[in-house]
Specification:
The structure holds two protein chains of two kinds. Chain A has twelve helices and two strands. By secondary structure, chain A is mainly alpha-helical. In chain A, a hairpin with a 2-residue loop joins β1 and β2. Classes of the chains: A mainly alpha, B alpha/beta.
């Protein structure tokens, strides 16, 4: 039997991880107006990256998350220069192509097998006040919270963070004041990719994953962006927490096979409520 | 203060020589235009709609690269060709640009807006903080609203944020496009006062304006531009608002300008 408190705590933990896994898409859309359709593949690539490092060199996922940052930042830079930079449609078509190409490459490298990661804390749990919280959820969510906190502080309190905000609100004015707008756009996109991969590493800690799962993680990111909106890290957090809590609650009251129906139902409701979909979200971007 | 150094005679002049510029290939907006803005003066560029006068500022600010011709800064005996310097590097050359219309970052606080003005000196925290503090001293009203999002201020206050942000890096050359467009008359008057004050501090001001009369009141040198070419230029005393307007719009419009002036 699980208590209401346990359901809520698990929902919040999931929400933190979902927030991190979706943040890259949210920021890329809000700041650059680029909808990264390859987001889901990158999340899975991050998960596979963690699996490979664990099995090749016994590197624990928490370390892999740190290593993923520079590696996937480089991947993001390449993707930006090749696909997004000169595109006039915000790279939408190019990123659609990249999604299909990357997914094919991912299948070549990692096959279509489903994998999962087992580490020392995988099957343990923390008990208090009658609640049982899986340790892997706690660890992954704590890591997500730390990464989110660092990103939030960097955006808010550093000059580079102010430049990113400025880029989102009025790129021309940012350029006039001296911000190298082209370079910052590349960096924002690449960081979006890197954070997506880091999110993937943490998701791999708690869920099984396969290359085909890419579209599910793309849809989850859509939900987070649709529900929370763009503009601030807090918006993504709202979207992530709604998604995490919804999943956790419906997990208790519905048979397993219906949970995803409800989760995707959220996506449908989000699209209906925000009449023009992601375009409406973009207009709210500040 | 560097302002004093400028007053003692080593201000920076900016000029463009034989500049051609276009947004679309084969459709020149500027067609061999030359403008010379002397150090420490207000140079006003006038012209009818579509004459290319705003494009002059875009070229001076680096937002549009000329297809031919040069843009040069002159400080004492030193001449620097900045024709190929991109817009984001021009603040480093002490050239600042105030575009037409709103340019505050709406969701950012007044303070963060001003901090972005310190971008050229961002690596020196102390210098950046000092530069922003100097602007608060200049416009004390901004200090009271420093934590508010810029979008929550009135249009006039937003204009002051823009002017303050422009002055944070202590520019030598200030490029201003239509400062009175879309603002209340009191704010427009304040804008012209501030431009005159910048000139008195030794800064070089290049002003593009449709509002001929107040622009002429603070002008030292005037250029008129037609179809992207030089029309007339000379000391401001040689130009009258009614005369300029008559030439573009005919006698009835000129009469209304004269009435306004009385």
């Amino acid at each position: 039997m699980s208590t209401a408190g346990q359901v809520i705590i698990i929902g919040v933990l999931l929400g933190l991880i979902y927030t991190l896994a979706a943040l890259g898409m949210q920021v890329t859309l809000g700041v650059l107006g680029v909808l990264n359709l390859a987001h889901g593949v990158i999340v899975i690539a991050g998960a596979m990256f963690a699996w490979d490092l664990l099995h090749a060199w016994h590197i624990t996922p928490l370390i892999s998350a740190v290593i993923a940052l520079p590696v996937f930042f480089a991947v993001g830079l390449v993707l930006y220069w090749v696909v997004v930079r000169r595109a006039r449609d915000g790279g939408l078509l190019g990123l659609f192509g990249a999604m299909i190409a990357l997914q094919s490459v991912a299948i070549l490298i990692w096959t279509t097998d489903s994998r999962s990661i087992t580490v020392s804390y995988t099957n343990s749990s923390v008990r208090f006040g009658g609640m049982v919280i899986p340790a892997d959820y706690l660890v992954a969510a704590a890591a997500a919270a730390v990464i989110l906190g660092v990103i939030y502080a960097a955006l808010r309190f550093t000059m580079s963070g102010r430049a990113v905000q400025a880029l989102a609100q009025d790129a021309e004015s940012a350029r006039i004041l001296g911000v190298n707008v082209d370079r910052y756009a590349a960096v924002v996109f690449a960081l979006g990719i890197a954070v997506a991969a880091m999110g993937g590493v943490l998701l791999a800690d708690i869920f099984p994953f396969s290359v085909q799962g890419a579209s599910q993680w793309l849809a989850f990111a859509f939900i987070v962006v649709l529900v929370g909106g763009t503009g601030r890290v807090v918006n993504a957090l709202v979207g992530g927490l709604v998604l995490g809590l919804a999943q956790s609650v419906f997990d208790q009251v519905l048979p397993l096979q219906y949970v995803n129906v409800v989760v995707y139902g959220l996506l449908a409701v989000g699209l209906i409520v925000r009449g023009s979909g992601l375009a409406a979200v973009k207009e709210r971007a500040l | 203060m560097t302002a004093n150094a400028r007053v003692t005679g080593d201000g920076t002049a900016i000029r463009m020589r034989d500049v051609c510029a276009e947004y679309h290939r084969g459709q020149p907006i500027l067609d061999g235009l030359s403008i010379s803005a002397p150090a420490g003066e207000v140079t006003v560029i006038l012209g009818p709609n579509g004459s290319g006068k705003s494009t002059v500022l875009k070229v001076l600010a680096g937002l549009l690269r000329p297809t031919s011709g040069q843009v040069e800064l002159t400080r004492g005996p030193t001449v620097t060709d900045i024709s190929k310097v991109p817009a984001h590097e021009r603040p480093g050359y002490k050239v600042a640009y105030l575009p037409q219309g709103h340019s505050v970052f709406p969701a950012m606080s007044v303070h963060d807006n001003l901090m972005l003005g310190a971008w050229p000196v961002r690596r020196n925290r102390r210098a950046a903080a000092k530069a922003v503090a100097a602007v608060y001293d200049r416009y004390p009203a901004l200090r009271k609203v420093r934590r508010r999002p810029a979008a929550s201020l009135s249009g006039g206050q937003q204009r002051i944020v823009e002017v303050g942000r422009l002055l944070v890096p202590d520019p030598d050359v200030v490029l201003v496009d239509e400062p009175s467009a879309g603002v209340a008359p009191a704010i427009a008057a304040l804008m012209y006062e501030e431009l005159a004050r910048m000139r008195d501090e030794g800064r070089t001001v290049v002003l593009v304006d449709q509002d001929v009369r107040p622009a002429l009141e603070i002008a030292d040198t005037v250029y008129t531009v037609r179809s992207g070419r030089n029309d007339a230029h000379g000391p401001a005393a040689d130009f009258s608002a009614a005369g300029v307007v008559r030439e573009w719009l005919g006698e009835p419009a000129a009469r209304s300008v004269r009435r306004e002036g009385q």
